[in-house]
């Protein structure tokens, strides 16, 4: 097989020199309150504003994440298992109100009615019903684990409606004002998929793209999904959704796990990483008394493969792009320039983190907590430059990257290295995750700035703004405060890429400190104001800003 090696012209990290980045920290503070159950606040309550909240901000920050970790005397095992608690920070005229509400999923309602865990989650296997007789409990071991509708990962928007979303085939349409659950929606009723990510991408006209697996007689397939922006009627939700392309995994019995994907103007980019799902173990989990996460594993001996799918034709490009084993949860941006596709994402050189986020690990203290953190590979932002124009005349064993400022190819295979999108000093902040950009104006386009959380703990403990031109960054960090994913809001009549503000929910395990919504000037990264909330909020996952301007 012919192989072409494609390398980076600047700041190249060659595979032979790549080293997994671990840390050596000591004395990490206990963060148990950040992963503990709280009560909901279903009616809006006022906050105490300190500093100034810009009066041009009109809308609400919607956040999602786990908020209840037990029913009765039964406890969830994994952070991802907690019941979805939705949050709304309403911002008007410089003032902020807060409310929260548990998603009334079938999982939540069944668990609440019986005051025990009835529905299995990612890391928790529901025990057989003690009210059944021995024979019925025995037979229940042979049942498949049913997918949960506990949509705790994100808020997503399709055709103007907001949905609480997870990674199964179920979403819940939610009223963005009251946070009331309105409708349970099943992806599989519209297209042949068994789930979809909670991180869709959007074209400027509102067309949504997503990815989801399907499990057929011939094994698993990865599917690219397209949802039109128009609604055909008031009851329309996912009508018109279609599968744009199906991709066969390297091993159909052990497909890759993925949390998100990349998208440029003309391509969907799927990253097939060596975090694998053993379908036999998952299907037989109940019989063996094992939860779903027991079937997910990291295989460092496999490469990472990038698949490019043309958004217009639905055809997968014949060239496959390969890199060393890496894991990724979130992409930063992807754009096309000078015959190349630039793919920027947060990567780790180890993929075992997903099974490290057990609730008991997050609640550890002392040396046990330090050891857990120090054994986890840190996520770092990287750029992969994928050449789009490859033909039979492409020269072999040469660097084809003619770009003066960037990263790497048989005529059907490209072997990629990467460029670091950071300086060495970012490692002092534990790497970076939960990336965000000025999405409305710069998604799928060349850009200069990205924002994220520094992770010098098991959860984010700083906010970071990175300048791609200089690879220098600005930081917001204060002791005992833990920021959520930063969300960029452009200012009215913005001219510069960073004209706007950053919103982040700041929580703390310290009793004499307040939880608050933080507003930073996105340009200077200085604090403009904060809105203190008189209730506890757990550490969540993702959210969106719903503008009312």
From TrEMBL:
<keyword id="KW-0496">Mitochondrion</keyword>
<comment type="function">
    <text>Broad specificity mitochondrial dioxygenase that mediates the asymmetric oxidative cleavage of carotenoids. Cleaves carotenes (pure hydrocarbon carotenoids) such as all-trans-beta-carotene and lycopene as well as xanthophylls (oxygenated carotenoids) such as zeaxanthin, lutein and beta-cryptoxanthin at both the 9,10 and the 9',10' carbon-carbon double bond. Through its function in carotenoids metabolism regulates oxidative stress and the production of important signaling molecules.</text>
</comment>
<keyword id="KW-0560">Oxidoreductase</keyword>
<dbReference type="GO" id="GO:0046872">
    <property type="term" value="F:metal ion binding"/>
</dbReference>
<feature type="binding site">
    <location>
        <position position="199"/>
    </location>
    <ligand>
        <name>Fe cation</name>
    </ligand>
</feature>
<dbReference type="InterPro" id="IPR004294">
    <property type="entry name" value="Carotenoid_Oase"/>
</dbReference>
<comment type="similarity">
    <text>Belongs to the carotenoid oxygenase family.</text>
</comment>
<dbReference type="GO" id="GO:0003834">
    <property type="term" value="F:beta-carotene 15,15'-dioxygenase activity"/>
</dbReference>
<keyword id="KW-0223">Dioxygenase</keyword>
<keyword id="KW-0479">Metal-binding</keyword>
<dbReference type="GO" id="GO:0042574">
    <property type="term" value="P:retinal metabolic process"/>
</dbReference>
<dbReference type="GO" id="GO:0016121">
    <property type="term" value="P:carotene catabolic process"/>
</dbReference>
<dbReference type="GO" id="GO:0010436">
    <property type="term" value="F:carotenoid dioxygenase activity"/>
</dbReference>
<dbReference type="GO" id="GO:0102076">
    <property type="term" value="F:beta,beta-carotene-9',10'-cleaving oxygenase activity"/>
</dbReference>
<feature type="binding site">
    <location>
        <position position="259"/>
    </location>
    <ligand>
        <name>Fe cation</name>
    </ligand>
</feature>
<feature type="binding site">
    <location>
        <position position="330"/>
    </location>
    <ligand>
        <name>Fe cation</name>
    </ligand>
</feature>
<dbReference type="Pfam" id="PF03055">
    <property type="entry name" value="RPE65"/>
</dbReference>
<feature type="binding site">
    <location>
        <position position="542"/>
    </location>
    <ligand>
        <name>Fe cation</name>
    </ligand>
</feature>
<keyword id="KW-0443">Lipid metabolism</keyword>
<keyword id="KW-0408">Iron</keyword>
<protein>
    <recommendedName>
        <fullName>Carotenoid-cleaving dioxygenase, mitochondrial</fullName>
        <ecNumber>1.13.11.71</ecNumber>
    </recommendedName>
</protein>
<dbReference type="GO" id="GO:0005739">
    <property type="term" value="C:mitochondrion"/>
</dbReference>
